[in-house]
Write a structure and sequence with these properties.
The complex is a heterodimer of chains A (489) and B (210). Chain A is 56% helix and 17% strand. Chain A is an alpha+beta fold. In chain A, strands 2-1-5-4-3 form a five-stranded antiparallel sheet. A five-stranded mixed sheet of chain A has the order 7-9-10-12-11. Chain A is elongated, with a radius of gyration of 44 Å. Chain B has two domains: 122 residues, Rossmann fold, CATH 3.40.50.2300; 60 residues, Arc Repressor Mutant, subunit A (Orthogonal Bundle), CATH 1.10.10.10. In chain B, strands 2-1-3-4-5 form a five-stranded parallel sheet, with helices on both faces. The chains are: A alpha+beta (489), B alpha/beta (210). At the A-B interface, helix 8, helix 9, helix 13 and strand 11 of A face helix 1 of B.
Chain lengths: 489, 210
Amino acid sequence: MFVAWLSNTVGKQPTGAVFALALALMGMIALVEYGLGQDLLLAIVYLLPIVIVTWAAGRNAGIAFSLLATAIWVTTVILTHRVYTNPLYFHWEWLVRLAMFILFVVILSRLKEALGSAGTALSRSEQRYRTLVAALPHGVQEIDLGGRILLANPALHRMLGYAEGDLVERPVAGLFGEAGEAQRAHRELEALRLVPGASASYAGRLARCDGSPVEVRFDWVCRRDDAGSPSGFIAVLTDLTAQRRAEAVSREQQERLEQAARLITVGEMASTLAHELNQPLASIVNFNMGCARRLRAGNWDPDALLDAMVQGSRQAERAGEIIRRVREFVSKREPSRALVDFNAIVGAAAALAELDVEKKHVRLALDLAPTLPRVLADEILIEQVILNLVRNGVEAMDETTPGERELRLASQLDVAGQVQFSIADRGRGIADGMAGEAFAPFFTTKPRGMGLGLSICRSILEYHDGRLWCEPNPAGGAIFHFTLPATAQ
Amino acid sequence: MTTTGTAARVYVVDDDEMFRKSLHWLLESVGLQVAAFATAAEFLDAYRAGDPGCLVLDIRMPGMSGLQLQDELAARAVRLPIVFLTAHGDVPMAVAAVKKGAVDFVQKPYNDQRLLDVIQGALQRDADTRAADERHRRTAALIAAMTPREREVMNAVVAGKTNKIIADELGVAVKTIEAHRARMMDKMGASSVAELVRLVTAIDAGPSSG
C-alpha cells in the first residue's frame, strides 16, 4: 500500500518539488528534535523524506539525504549539548543511524527496480497481445455478462463494415440481424457459463452495418475471474464468405473435370471398346468352333461340349454388359497430339488434384527430373491419366493413418530413353495376382467405381505408344508407372 | 501342312483367363498341344530354350506387353515364331511387330480357320527352321572333321578354281590336290561340285532366317 502510494504520489511529481518537500520535512523534524531536546527518539521519522527522495530520484539522492539527515541529527546533538558517558557512544549512535538510513535506501531502490522490470514485462506482454488481436484476420470481440461489447478488433470492424472503434460499448445483440441468431447465441452462451473450460463453435450469421448478412463461424469461450465465476465472453469470428466461394468454385471445377473425364472416356472408348469387346467375341468363336470341330470329327465328350457352350454364352453376356455400360458415354473428342513439356502436365494435374488431395489430408510430393525431352502427347488426355492415378492413390489411402498419407509423383528419363512417370501411394496396395486384373475394364475395388479408369488410362497410353503398369510399393502401397516415348530432340 | 515335331506346342500368353481357356479348347479340337500363360513373365519362367512350337501373344497385356516379350525373346536368341493377336485399334502396333519378325497377326475376333492356319504356318516355320538348323549343324560338323588342307581345297573348289590352279597356289602337285579333293568330297557326302557348293553356301548364309 505504501508502495502504491509512493508510486502514485511521489512517482509522478517533478524531482525538484520532491527535493523541496523532503528538505522541508527534514527541517521540520530537525526543529522538533531541537525543540524537544533529544528526549524523544525521532530517528525513524527521518526515514520519511529519505524514502520519498529515494523513490523519486534514485539511490544516490537517497544516500545524500541519509548523510544530510545524519548531519542534522549530529548538529542537534551538538546544539543541545547532549552528554554521553563515553564519547564513543556518540559516534556509535550516528554511525548506526547512517547505516540504517543507507540500508533503507538500498532496499528501497532495489524494490523499485524489481517493480519497474515487472511492470515493463507486463506492459510488453499486454502490447504483444494487443498487436496480435489487432492483426488477426479473424474478428475478436469481448463482451461482458450483460452483452455489452468491451473490445472489438479491427478485423471485426472491417468484417461488419463499422468504423474503427464504433463497436465498443454497443450491445452485442445489435450485431445479430435475425432474432433466431441472437437466440442461438444466447443459448450457446448460457451453456458456456455453466461448464468451465467449455467452448462453443458454430456457423451462423451476423448483420453488417448496412444490414446485409455475413456468414460467420463463432468460437466462443467464457471468461472467468480468479474465483472461477463467469465475467464475460470472448468470441473469435471467422468470415466464411471466402470459404463458401472456394467451395463453390471447387464444386464447379469438379463438375468440369468430370465432364472432361467423360469426354475422353468417350474419345478413347473406341479403342478400349474394340479390345474389350473383341475379347469375349474371340472367346465365343473359340468355344463354338472348338465344339464344331469336335462334332465334325466325331470325337467328343458331351460334358466337355456342354461346358464349352455354357462358357461361350457367358462370354456373350459379358460382351452385352460392356456394350450396355459403354452406351452411357457419347463420343465427341478426337485426341490431338503435340510436343509438350511432360513436367508441366504433371504440374497441371497436381494442381487440379490439389483440392481432392488436401481434403483427404494427403501429402503430395513431386520429384520431377529437371530436364526431360518433350513428349508427343495429347496434353489433356495425359493430364487425365495422371489425375485418375492421383485420385486412385488418394482413395487407396482412405484407411491409412492421415500422417502417413503420401503420394509421390516422380518423372525421369528411363534407361530406354523414355519419359517415365511413377506415382507411389501408401495405401492398401494391390492384392497378389491382382496387378493384371487392375487394368481390366469393370474391375474395381471401389464401392461406387465403374472399373473403367485404369483400363481407359491404359488405352490412352497405348494410343501414345506408352505403357502403364503397376507394382507393389516396397514401403507399403502401390506404385503405378507409365512411360511415354520421348521425342528425338 | 506337314506334321510338326511331336513335342511342338502352341504357347498362348493372354491376360484374359476366359480367352485362354477358350483358345485352349479350340486348339485342342485340332489336336494341338497347348500351354497357356497369363503373363509374359510366367511364360518366360516356364519356357525352356529350344523347345519347339510357336507363341500366340496378345499384343497388349499388363506388365510386359506382347511387343516387349518379342524383344525379350530376341534378346535371349529364342526364335520361336510369334503370332500376335490384336484388337481393331492395334493394327499399327501389329504391323510393327511383324516388321520385327513376327510371323503374322490375327485380329480379334477372327475366323477360327484363319487363326488355325496362321498357327499351323507358324508351327511349320518352326519345324522348317529346326530342320534347316539340323542340316547346318550336320554340315558344319562334317567340315569340322576335315584336315586344314582339305578345308583349303574345299574353299578353292567352291570358289570355282581348277585343280591345276589350286596346286599352283598351294605349291603342291596336282596329284596331291586330286587326292585331297576326293577325300573332301567323300567326307562331305557330296557327289558333285554343285552339291558341295549348295551345302557350303547354306552354311555361309548362317542358320535359316526365322
